Amino acid sequence: MSDGSETLLMEASDILELFPIGYSSDGESLYLARITIRGTDFEALPATGGTPEILVHASDQTARDWHLSPDGGRIAFLAGQATDSRIAARAFVADLIAGAVPQPLSSFADGLDVGDHFNPVWHPDGDRIAVGRLLAEGGSAAAVVSLSDGELGEATPGPQRGFDVPVGWSPDGSYLAVRSFEGSSPSQPGRERLVIVELGKGRAELGDGGTLDFIGWVGGDGR
């Protein structure tokens, strides 16, 4: 609160972890990710407190890297998906308003059903999602998927080696901030850099050493 006071919104004892995600577009609900032994649920808690309502069962496992769409009606996140040989980290999209079963991001566009995914983030247009991916043959630029028409592109130029993990689009959608890793896998990521990708034009590394954390953008033109 602005006066430094605190308000208890809810209490729960049957959880492993509880994370606030963001507010609904009308500001009346706070979206939560509740992780229990049954997996991960997305819930809506009245902004004034009370009993949360389960909106979507996200996964029987621990979901992570969740991001609300610009209109607050959908959520993109990562969860485990069984493949022929292992459990891969894959991106999913869930409609919080309809409460429908989450859909794999690969169901919107061909070519995303291989490798691991990283941190799906929404484009300001509310239709496209950038997601990092690690292919069997090596790293690549982040993929950009349109949910409306299934178009699959890339946030190029990509890294010469390693892989990019998206962290945030600029307000005008012309730039994508990424965590760029030089290694070959999440277990051996190698050197990490914070990089700004100007789509179709170039890449610029921020800082001159050390670790930088992305917080957000300043200015409507994406700078």
Offer a quick outline of the entry:
This protein is mainly beta and 223 residues long. It is built from no helices and 17 strands. It has strands spanning 17-23, 29-36, 39-46, 53-59, 64-68, 74-82, 87-95, 103-104, 116-122, 128-135, 138-139, 143-146, 152-154, 163-169, 175-181, 192-198, 202-205.
Write up what this structure looks like.
The protein is built from no helices and 17 strands. It has strands at residues 17-23, 29-36, 39-46, 53-59, 64-68, 74-82, 87-95, 103-104, 116-122, 128-135, 138-139, 143-146, 152-154, 163-169, 175-181, 192-198, 202-205. A hairpin with a 5-residue loop joins strand 12 and strand 13.
Helix percent reads: under 10%
Shape: globular
Distance between the termini: 31 Å
| pLDDT < 50 runs, ≥5 residues | none
Strand content: over 45%
- The total of helices stands at 0
The largest sheet is: 5 strands, antiparallel
Instruction: Please provide the count of β strands.
Output: 17
Please compute the radius of gyration using only Cα atoms. 18 Å
Observed structural traits:
4-stranded antiparallel β-sheet; 0% helix; 5-stranded antiparallel β-sheet; 17 strands; 223 residues; mainly beta
